[in-house]
Specification:
With 385 residues, the protein is of the alpha+beta class. The chain has 8 helices and 14 strands. Helix content is 36%, strand content 20%. The chain has a 5-stranded antiparallel β-sheet, with no helix packed on it. The chain has a 5-stranded mixed β-sheet with strand order 3-10-9-5-6, with no helix packed on it. The longest helix has 61 residues, at 2-62.
């Protein structure tokens, strides 16, 4: 009989333990929900300022604020927004984000409103060293409390004080502005957003100057003009020597704008301006003329090409008598052949015949005995070699 009583008591104790564990599990679940609600109430006020700061940044970017600004202003603006974003969580101060079990129990008891504070009662325990009877009585008490208040333990919806701190609903205005600017930016949202972080100096692409130039040799030089373009390279740039005769004329035409041209460092003024129809200055033609006189002449055009000329100097002509003959059939005729050279070419000359030998200083030659001077030109003149 005693053994049966002992077994019954043991079975009842085991069943009581299982009921207590189930009660504790359900109660702890309610406590965790209360802790989560409190955590969100404390976290949300801290998240609103960063969200607003980010919304303002996105709205400004999608509205195209950064595109017209220089790199320095973009950098300053982006860094200002970054500093404001990092400091914004501290604008709305709340309690610690570490929510204790005690905070959750106060919330549960606050929702019930009973001065007996059943939530805190369910969280209490008897001393470990208490006798088993005390533990059994305390568990029975907790079960009674749970049966009475279990349906009233609610964590409640999280309620922050953001509306009190933002009575004018500025956060909603920022959200609306962000949505509108995102719709306006359309497919250019990513491009406009990255402009805020584009701090490199803009690369100015200068359109090449349209140039037309040629070297006209002197009139006596029987060589064609030398035409130059933007792609003409002199021997300093891997091309051939640009040869020109002394006193040749270099003519340069620039189209669309007046520019600066330097010859061996000296600036050359514009000699002539040709306006297009309607006097449009953008389509005008500017003419420069340069006389090539120095042996080494460097012509530099701003925003254009540079040419290095080797100017050949003008050398004196040379003439050499090749032969003097008297035909047998016509002894009174004198045939003279010569060889003439000159880099500019020879177009005319003079044949002078002088008496050889000593002349008596007291003699007076007759006017008819004066030797004539023969001008040579055209077919009568010897060809240069």
């Amino acid at each position: 009989m005693a053994s049966d009583e002992t077994t019954l008591k043991g079975d009842n104790r085991s069943e009581t333990d299982r009921d207590y564990k189930k009660l504790s599990s359900q109660f702890n679940r309610v406590v965790r929900w209360a802790q989560a609600a409190i955590f969100w109430e404390r976290l949300w006020p801290r998240l609103v300022p960063p969200f607003c700061t980010g919304g303002i940044f996105l709205s400004a970017s999608w509205a195209g604020l950064w595109q017209p600004l220089p790199p320095e202003a973009r950098m300053a603006g982006a860094l200002t927004f970054a500093a404001a974003f990092l400091a914004s969580p501290f604008l709305m101060k709340t309690k610690s984000l570490h929510v204790t079990k005690k905070d959750a129990l106060k919330r549960l008891d606050g929702h019930i409103g009973d001065p007996a504070r059943p939530a805190q009662t369910l969280a209490d325990n008897v001393a470990v060293a208490s006798p088993p009877v005390a533990h059994a009585l305390w568990r029975a008490h907790l079960e009674g409390v749970w049966d009475k208040w279990a349906g009233q333990f609610k964590a409640g919806r999280p309620r922050s004080d953001v509306p009190r701190r933002d009575p004018y609903n500025i956060r909603y205005a920022i959200l609306l502005c962000t949505m509108l600017t995102a719709a306006v930016a359309g497919e250019y949202r990513a491009e406009r957003l990255t402009e805020a972080f584009n701090w490199a100096a803009p690369v100015t692409v200068v359109a090449p100057l349209k140039v037309k130039a040629w070297v006209m040799p002197p009139e006596n030089i029987q060589t064609p003009p030398l035409y130059l373009t933007e792609k003409t390279q002199d021997y300093t740039q891997g091309g051939g020597k640009l040869l020109a005769h002394q006193t040749s004329t270099l003519t340069i035409l620039t189209f669309g704008e007046e520019t600066e041209i330097f010859v061996n460092g000296a600036k050359v003024p514009v000699q002539k301006t040709i306006l297009s129809d309607g006097d449009s200055q953008e389509k005008s033609t500017f003419q420069y003329e340069i006389q090539l006189t120095e042996k080494d002449t460097i012509v530099a055009i701003k925003k254009g090409p540079q040419w290095h000329f080797e100017v050949a100097p003008d050398t004196a002509p040379t003439v050499r008598i090749n032969s003097i003959d008297t035909p047998e059939k016509d002894p009174g005729r004198l045939e003279v052949t010569c060889i003439a050279k000159d880099d500019y070419g020879i177009h005319e000359g003079v044949l002078i015949i002088e008496r050889s030998g000593a002349v008596d200083p007291e003699s007076r030659p007759l006017p008819s005995g004066k030797l004539p001077i023969f001008p040579l030109s055209g077919r009568d003149f010897c060809k240069p070699k």
